[in-house]
Amino acid sequence: MPTLSQWLQTCPLPKNEARLLLQHATGYTRAQLITRDGESLPDEVCTALESFTERRLNGEPVAYILGVREFYGRSFAVGPAVLIPRPETEHLVEAALARLPQGGKLWDLGTGSGIVAVTAALERPDASVRASDISADALAVARRNAQDLGAAVEFARGSWFDTDRPSEQNSYDIIVSNPPYIEAGDAHLTQGDLRFEPQGALTDFSDGLTCIRALADGAPAYLKTGGWLLLEHGFDQGAAVRGILRRNGFVQIETLPDLAGLDRVTLGRKP
After folding, report:
1. Mind listing the domains of the chain with CATH numbers?
2. Torsion on CA atoms 231, 180, 150, 148, rounded to nearest 10
């Protein structure tokens, strides 16, 4: 049986990934991997590590193997039914929270694993937060995250504004979404982690703007006067999204960059 140190040295994966898998299999912290590096690995742990390594070598995302991914300083459950949380979406959350009034109402459409809704509910317990998704499997993950993290979120199932729990019109201060925005045929869909993520959460199977048009068209009916629509989108879609919001009557339209300086979030206000 190899020791922790020997397994790390012989594992064919990048060292940071190997350490994450070893922590997951053993339950040890990063520090314990160092202080206990001479310990022998039990057979069952070796078997689990062989499986994890093979899955990763076949391209499966580390987050799906571990079953968790950190977002906004919290650990969220993830799986093949939902997108893997990405740091760029923290800009969407921050922009929404900055515009959410005391005691306000927020609706996260296409919630996936629930990272936006759950984070908003935890950061702003004074607010009322609603989350919806067309996928029952995604909603199951989101509900689990809300329960595990102690977030008060109302969930509904449906396609955008058409849900099984109708919502009151003209009642939301914030409507927020990270919708499918990758254009059909984009090479990225066949590369890296994206190969394993739910395609319907990544692409609209069209020009990448279909869902954004639907959200911009439907949001005014549910926003209060002065309420905000905030949308995450691709780095090259800022101008197109601003145009869509303008055509749907929004004002104070602005595109916010991510840390790399790329267009990432476009927002507009209901006049």
Report:
1. 4-58 (no CATH), 68-269 (3.40.50.150)
2. -160
**Element spanning 224, H or E:** strand 223-232
CA nearest to 48, candidates 24, 28, 82: 24
Q: How buried is 89 (Cβ within 10 angstroms: 0-12 exposed, 13-18 middle, 19+ buried)?
A: buried
130 within 8 A of 99, measured Cβ to Cβ: no
> Which contacts qualify for 67-71: CB closer than 8 Å, 24 or more apart?
71/115, 71/119
CB 266 within 8 A of CB 245: yes
pLDDT in tens, 18-49: 999 989 988 888 888 888 888 888 888 889 98
Count of CB atoms within 10 A of residue 17's CB?
Answer: 15
CA distance 128 to 58: 42
Furthest-apart CA atoms within the chain: distance in Å: 68
What confidence tens digit (pLDDT) does each residue in 62-98 have? 999 999 999 999 999 999 999 999 999 999 999 999 9
